[in-house]
Design brief:
3 helices, five-stranded antiparallel sheet, 5 strands, alpha+beta, 27% strand, single chain, Heat Shock Protein 90
């Protein structure tokens, strides 16, 4: 006897989008527009947009992505659990790290913003390429 297993008709398939951007400051608004269009109904959209803004600015200001001809990539994954965003840059000397409040006199708030708004964040990579990942559940986390 052959048994069939059925999946619920309402199951939402995971989605994945990727776009490459030039490493120029004027590209930041295109990063936000890209995500806003894809995630228009996502409950934490404002948080996602602010985090992507910070990660894209960091890629341009602190990595080779901001040099002439530089590029960075934004990946957005969405499924029933929520959204995961990735920003991949062309690497550089330093490593992404949270700064202490004493170090924040002139900037450096980007990863603190990411840490405050994303449920989790992490990074992987080398001096040649790094990816920062931030997660957002479908339900508001805060």
């Amino acid at each position: 006897m052959l048994l069939a297993v059925t999946a619920p008709a309402t199951h939402e398939a995971p989605m994945h989008w990727r776009r490459e951007f030039r490493g120029r400051p004027e590209q930041i608004r295109f990063v936000r527009a890209f995500a806003a269009h894809l995630l228009a109904d996502f409950p934490a959209l404002d948080d996602v947009l602010l985090v992507l803004d910070e990660l894209a600015v960091n890629a341009i200001q602190h990595t080779r992505s901001g040099e002439d001809g530089g590029r960075f990539t934004v990946d957005i994954n969405m499924d029933v659990a929520g959204v995961i965003v990735y920003v991949t840059d062309q690497g550089g000397q330093g490593e992404p790290k949270l700064r202490s409040l004493a170090e924040l006199a002139e900037g450096g708030r980007g990863l603190l913003t990411v840490d405050a708004l994303a449920t989790t964040w992490s990074w992987t990579g080398t001096r040649e390429s790094r990816t920062i990942r931030a997660t957002f559940p479908r339900t508001n986390h805060g």
